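Posting for a labmate who doesn't have an account.
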Amino acid sequence: MVTFETWRWEFYAFVSEAEGCPVQSWFDGLPQEDREEIVDLLDRVRNTTNRPWPERIYDPLKGEGGISEIKVENLTRLREAKVEEITYRIYGFFGPRHLEHSYTFLHGTEKSAKNDRLGKAIAKGRLEEIARSIAGVQKFNHKGRSGTKVEEKPRRPN
């Protein structure tokens, strides 16, 4: 008898005392339609459990010190009365080990160069901080702005 596992990828984000949660802050600051595109892409890979993630949306970045990237397809947007193509990248890694079926985001950016050396360097530095237990991870919130507190009812003046 063959047993089938049912699971989905979980997404986490780098967090440290010094930086807070920079990937979450970056994501929360994006325009809503761009956040929705990223969430749609994450939903596609979240369910890809029986084969490697597709090349068009994932690059293992061999030789880059353990980091990889999730590639958001080019988005055509109107900015300052000009039509522009926007390319987002989210650098990360599979892990940490104690979290099964997890991928952790280390750095999110709007990519403007073919080889984003600075973005990769930031991601590698954050991965090193996690490895040395200087930093940690927290669950990535793709549903809304994490720093925004919503009051259930308006406050009345005293």
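Reply:
Got it, the structure tokens are right above this. Residues 145-158 have pLDDT under 50 and may be disordered.
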